[in-house]
């Protein structure tokens, strides 16, 4: 009998790192998640401790292997997924000059506007596929150069969180084409750092990690780390890709016309093209998966993070109820929302609590309830928040459709996909059937499938269809869809009309809150 083979996917996320161990058929054998905080001392700041995240990577791998009780010699690979748009300034002696500045950090907003309006930003976007926004490394580096010159002048390497982890493990700063294509500094045609973007940033190629394909692997772990994790030091570590493009792979949304919608901490709408495509209006991103798979879409800042805000700030009683009943507090909130009519009886919520990426690309955007009346109660506000998150994703889908055509199939993933209420809400607002795979570990599964492809264990990605397991499909309720069709134009018009006011209130907040 052949020896069993095992594959480990690791997803370095914004609020946690997760490791998932699979067998060759895609069955989950063990998993471990380690949480860590997002530090937000001001409304514009969103940072994390890189060393804490590195310890989480080591810890999740160690605990997953321990729980599984497999023979570590059967581990064929470790492959990585990671959140995008992080920046860590590293000095010449490998000292950390900054924390990990995450995608949610908006201190570079005014610099992004200047790049867009005065420094040829749109042309840079068309070459690099990353909309000009405070999230991108291009904008963050310009912010460091102009607002933190003492840090900028000492920086030998502008790293992201995954390149930082790989440097710790193997001593090399490398970045996969997928993460690189989300920096605003990487040319999609020649697959190298873009000369014009580097000129705007004021840096040279030696200050950035070496770009490598997503199939690139390294082996020869430092002995101490291999021993701590309980794995052989020669296990191949496949660099992998970003969490977004791997979520598409992990749900089998890799054929043209198939759209993946994900809501985790943030959210995204993505589809795959055989060639890179950028949007003349600058609304969508284009990120690499492989040379033949380019992911077109739009990411939103405001996904599950908004539901967490709602829970923490307004639902203390509901949280206590959940504790007494030994159920998840989010389940209590969604059940409450399900008691309210579709459309929340005319209450709209714009979920821009952390600014917004697609489709607005406006770091100044702010959240608001609109239509609030004396007849509205807490349960209406809860449902309006859930609906607002999905309304916003629908507006992203409209932009993607202009580039790639109307979707033939929508596949959903992310933490929200565990909730039947969320899934039905999406089907009703999108007005299309929504398919959800049984496995919710899409980014980790995508990382493993990419790793198997990288090491020649599979010839193409078609195997993922057999690995994701049973799927659930939700059909739209036509009466609910009709209501949402009335409200969506109002939602869209409001976000456009408030552009100047977003800037005014954001300026006030920056002035008075830091």
Task: Explain what the structure shows.
- Keywords: Kinase, Transferase.
- With 514 residues, this protein is α+β, with helices and mostly antiparallel strands.
- Strands 17-18-16-15-21-22-23 form a seven-stranded mixed β-sheet, with helices on both faces. A six-stranded mixed β-sheet has the order 3-2-1-5-14-13, sandwiched between helices. The chain has a two-stranded antiparallel sheet with strand order 4-7.
- It contains 19 helices and 23 strands.
- The model has no long low-confidence stretch (mean pLDDT 94).
- Strand 21, helix 15 and strand 22 form a beta-alpha-beta unit.
- The radius of gyration is 22 Å and the shape is globular.
- The relative contact order is 0.12.
- The termini are far apart.
- Helix 1 packs across helix 6 (161-170), helix 11 packs across helix 12 (316-325) and helix 13 crosses helix 14.
């Amino acid at each position: 009998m052949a020896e069993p083979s095992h594959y480990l996917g690791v997803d370095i996320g914004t609020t946690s790192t997760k490791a998932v161990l699979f067998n060759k058929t895609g069955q989950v054998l063990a998993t471990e998640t380690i949480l860590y905080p997002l530090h937000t001392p001001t409304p514009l700041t969103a940072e994390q401790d890189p060393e804490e995240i590195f310890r989480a990577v080591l810890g999740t791998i160690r605990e997953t292997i321990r729980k599984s009780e497999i023979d570590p010699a059967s581990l064929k690979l470790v492959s990585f997924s990671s959140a995008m748009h992080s920046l860590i300034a590293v000095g010449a002696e490998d000292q950390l000059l900054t924390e990990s500045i995450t995608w949610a950090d908006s201190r570079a907003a005014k610099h992004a506007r200047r790049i867009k309006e005065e420094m040829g930003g749109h042309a840079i976007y068309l070459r690099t596929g990353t909309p000009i926004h405070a999230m991108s490394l291009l904008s963050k580096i310009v912010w460091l150069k102009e607002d933190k010159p003492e840090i900028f002048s000492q920086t030998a390497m502008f790293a992201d969180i995954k390149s930082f982890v790989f440097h710790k493990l193997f001593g090399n700063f490398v970045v996969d084409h997928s993460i690189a294509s989300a920096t605003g500094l990487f040319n999609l045609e020649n697959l190298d750092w873009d000369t014009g973007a580097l000129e705007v940033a004021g840096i040279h190629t030696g200050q950035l990690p070496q770009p490598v394909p997503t199939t690139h692997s390294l082996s020869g772990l430092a002995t101490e780390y291999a021993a701590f994790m309980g794995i052989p030091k020669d296990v191949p570590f496949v660099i992998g890709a970003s969490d977004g493009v791997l979520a598409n792979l992990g749900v089998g949304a890799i054929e043209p016309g198939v759209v993946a919608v994900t809501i985790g901490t943030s959210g995204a709408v993505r589809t795959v093209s055989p060639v890179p495509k950028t949007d003349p209006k600058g609304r969508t991103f284009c990120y690499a998966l492989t040379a033949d798979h380019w992911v077109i879409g739009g990411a939103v800042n405001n996904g599950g993070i908004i539901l967490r805000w709602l829970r923490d700030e307004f639902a203390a009683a509901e949280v206590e109820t959940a504790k007494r009943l030994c159920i998840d507090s989010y389940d209590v909130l969604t059940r409450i929302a399900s008691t309210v009519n579709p459309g929340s009886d005319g209450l709209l919520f714009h979920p821009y609590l952390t600014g917004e990426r697609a489709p607005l690309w406006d770091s100044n955007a702010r959240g608001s309830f609109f239509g609030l009346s004396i007849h509205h109660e807490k349960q209406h506000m809860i449902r309006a928040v859930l609906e607002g998150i999905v309304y916003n994703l629908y507006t992203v889908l409209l932009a993607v459709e202009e580039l790639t055509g109307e979707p033939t199939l929508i596949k959903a993933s992310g933490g929200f996909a565990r909730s039947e209420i969320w899934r039905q809400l999406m089907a009703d607002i999108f007005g299309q059937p929504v398919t959800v795979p049984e496995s919710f570990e899409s980014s980790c599964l995508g990382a493993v499938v990419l790793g198997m492809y990288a090491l020649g264990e599979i010839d193409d990605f078609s195997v993922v269809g057999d690995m994701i397991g049973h799927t659930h499909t939700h059909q739209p309720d036509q009466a609910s869809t009709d209501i949402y069709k009335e409200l969506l134009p109002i939602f869209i018009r409001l976000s456009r009309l408030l552009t100047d006011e977003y800037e005014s209130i954001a300026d006030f907040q920056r002035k008075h809150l830091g």
